[in-house]
Write a structure and sequence with these properties.
globular; about 170 residues; alpha+beta; 1 helix; about 25% helix
Length: about 170
C-alpha cells in the first residue's frame, strides 16, 4: 500500500511538472509573438535625433510574406544599417547588419506592452574583442513615438546611442 501511495505521489509530481513546463512554454511563445507584434506596429517612416542632436531617419517594413520585419537606419552616409527581425520557433531574433562590417545576432531578453530588449548571443565577422552591437531596446510609449537605445561594446567598453523618433505622416 505504501508503495502504491509513493507511486501515485511520484506520478502526480511528474504530471504537475509537465503541466507547469508546458504552460511556461506557451507563455514564452505568446510573449515572443506579442513582442514581434509590437515591433510590427513600428512599420512606416520615422524621423528624429540621436543623443548628439544629429538627425536620424528609420524605416520599418514587413517583408518575406510577413515573416520578417526590416528596419533601416538612414542618413548615416555609407554606414546605413539594416536590422532584420523574425521568429525562430518560439523565440524572436534579430540580426543587425552594422556599419562596423559585422552582423551581431540578438535574442529577446525582456519585453512588456511597450518595450522589447535584445541581447547579443552570437554573430558573424566578429573577432575576439571586436566592437559590435551588444544590446538594444525599442520602446514605444504611443503609436507615433518610439525610442531606440543601442549599446555598442568595444574591447570591454560600452557606448550608447539613443534615437528619439516620431512617426512621419
Amino acid at each position: 500500500m505504501k508503495l502504491v501511495r509513493n507511486s501515485v505521489r511520484n506520478i502526480a509530481a511528474v504530471a504537475t511538472f509537465v503541466i507547469v513546463l508546458s504552460a511556461s512554454l506557451v507563455v514564452g511563445q505568446a510573449d515572443a509573438h506579442k513582442s514581434f507584434d509590437l515591433l510590427k506596429g513600428l512599420e512606416g517612416n520615422w524621423a528624429g535625433k540621436n543623443n548628439q542632436g544629429q538627425p536620424v531617419q528609420v524605416t520599418f517594413r514587413m517583408t518575406a510574406g510577413g515573416s520578417a520585419l526590416m528596419s533601416e537606419i538612414l542618413g548615416r552616409g555609407p554606414e546605413n544599417m539594416i536590422t532584420m527581425f523574425h521568429m525562430d520557433g518560439d523565440r524572436l531574433l534579430m540580426t543587425h547588419y552594422c556599419g562596423a562590417g559585422n552582423q551581431p545576432r540578438m535574442k529577446v531578453i525582456s519585453s512588456d506592452a511597450k518595450s522589447v530588449s535584445f541581447e547579443f548571443f552570437d554573430g558573424t565577422n566578429i573577432g575576439p574583442g571586436d566592437g559590435h552591437m551588444q544590446h538594444v531596446t525599442f520602446t514605444q510609449p504611443d503609436a507615433d513615438h518610439h525610442v531606440e537605445e543601442w549599446v555598442f561594446l568595444d574591447h570591454g567598453k560600452e557606448s550608447r546611442e539613443v534615437f528619439t523618433l516620431a512617426r512621419v505622416k
